[in-house]
Design brief:
Structural class: alpha+beta
Number of helices: 5
Largest sheet: 5 strands, mixed
Radius of gyration: 19 Å
Strand order of the largest sheet: 5-11-10-9-8
Low-confidence stretches: 216-225
């Protein structure tokens, strides 16, 4: 009987690194979002098929990786009732540490959630660069399969030398600085110097409040900022 029962089912396998799983009640489909744009879906948790999720820009609904993170939709932020301009080019930031850098293969651990207040699918994505020049950005879409459009950075790392912090939101958070605060300008090795920001995880708690679970590296950054 066991071989007969087993033969009634078929498996569809996919490979997805750093998976984040989300349920879409409208299509009654499970989705897995993973690093390097490896995504998949299933309706029965057995037969998985790959999904191509496009990026959106003003010029294209299927933009290249190198163009997708250059122009945020949110370019102004408010603090204390005062509006400030902030236009963060996540692609240029990620390649500051290496002139040969390519963003292809550097889009890590996306986490996707339906935002009830925005009525949007929200993707939180690590855009990783060498020497900690990384950021976690927010992209949104009306459809879980995209296209997703870059909105703004959530967390930025890598401003551990010189005046690079001037190109981040650090001064918007802690005020104008005459130099990089000493707690960021430490060490020259991984584990000593400022950690990378990676692996976002966003969820609603029991009270319906939107929360973020994070890796230790990201948690360290948020605590110190």
């Amino acid at each position: 009987m066991l071989p007969l029962v087993a033969s009634a089912y078929s498996l569809g396998r996919v490979t997805v690194h750093d998976p984040s799983i989300v349920w879409d009640p409208n299509s009654r489909t499970y989705y897995i979002f993973g690093s390097h744009r490896d995504h998949a879906k299933t309706t029965d948790l057995m037969r998985w098929t790959t999904v191509t999720v496009p990026w959106q820009t003003a010029a294209s609904n299927n933009a290249a990786n190198s163009a997708a993170f250059t122009t945020p939709q949110v370019t102004k932020v408010k603090k204390g009732g005062v509006e400030y301009a902030f236009n963060f080019n996540a692609f240029n930031w990620s390649k500051r540490g290496n002139s040969d850098y390519s963003v292809d293969g550097m889009m890590w651990a996306p986490d996707v959630i339906w935002n009830k207040a925005m009525n949007k699918w929200c993707m939180y994505l690590s855009v990783n660069g060498d020497y900690w020049y990384s950021s976690i950005i927010l992209l949104t879409s009306d459809n879980i399969e995209g296209p997703y459009r870059y909105q703004a950075p959530v967390v930025i790392s890598g401003f551990h030398t010189g005046t690079s912090y001037k190109d981040t939101d650090l001064e918007l958070v802690i005020g104008t600085q005459t130099s990089l605060p000493s707690r960021y300008a430490v060490g020259n090795k991984w584990g000593e110097r400022y950690p990378n920001c990676i692996d976002p995880c966003v969820f609603y708690d029991e009270q319906g409040r939107l929360r973020c679970g994070v890796s230790p590296d990201w948690q360290w950054q948020r605590h110190h900022r």
